[in-house]
From TrEMBL:
DNA-binding region: 24-43
InterPro entries, per the entry: Homeodomain-like_sf, HTH_TetR, Tet_transcr_reg_TetR-rel_C_sf, TetR_C
Source taxon at top rank: Bacteria
Protein name, UniProt field: Transcriptional regulator, TetR family
TM segment ranges: none
Any Pfam family: TetR_N
A single GO molecular function term of this UniProt record: DNA binding
Length: 202
């Protein structure tokens, strides 16, 4: 691994652990094990390094959501993504940046965070719309609203897990989200059965 990657990896770790405001270039260089010459050879300063590191973190978050865009049952893809491992007490790498005052007031950094969540919501919405189209979710489902509900459940799970320093709140939040989808699927099947019965009687 070259010094550039060492620096971006170190910055990504420190952003997760401490946030942008509490991370200094000296901290990054010490974590990366590189000198000042390497730091300023690759980056103009802390901000440039943070932009590259946070961009990589955002890409990683979206890569983990690949099940939402996979093949097969849309509902099963959603459940698979929800059930993927999440270390709740460590928090969401991207979500935690929304709590950093210097990130939310920095146009470049905040745009990366906003863009990551926007893309994530689009993927949720498409998977939900696909599930509605194939009858796995009720036709009354509003994809945008359900997408935001599920995203909020995940982020809320992180917050509660960190607040209690316990993985249990995250696991409970995910079980609740899965139960919500199961209930919606049951309702969709009931609606379909009712519609078929009405067609038969008429």
């Amino acid at each position: 691994m070259g010094s550039r990657d060492q620096l971006t990896d170190a910055m990504a770790e420190l952003l997760w652990e401490r946030g942008y405001a509490a991370t200094s270039p000296r901290d990054v260089m010490a974590r990366a094990g590189v000198g000042q010459g390497s730091m300023y050879h690759h980056f103009g300063g802390k901000h440039d390094l943070a932009v590259e590191a946070l961009s990589g973190v955002a890409e990683g978050m979206l890569a983990q959501a690949s099940p939402l865009e996979g093949e097969g049952s849309p509902l099963e893809r959603m459940k698979a993504y929800l059930a993927s491992p999440r270390p709740g007490t460590q928090g969401c790498r991207v979500g935690r940046m929304t709590q950093d005052p210097q990130v939310v007031t920095d146009p470049g950094l905040s745009a990366i965070v906003a863009g990551a969540f926007s893309t994530m919501l689009q993927r949720w919405e498409q998977a939900i719309a696909d599930a509605v189209a194939v009858g796995e979710l009720p036709s009354s489902t509003v994809p945008g609203e359900l997408a935001r509900t599920l995203a909020a459940v995940i982020q809320g799970g992180y917050v509660l897990a960190r607040a209690e320093n316990d993985q249990a709140p995250m696991d409970a939040a995910i079980r609740g989200a899965l139960a919500l989808l199961d209930a919606a699927q049951t309702a969709a099947h009931a609606d379909a059965t009712s519609s078929r019965s009405q067609e038969t009687t008429t």
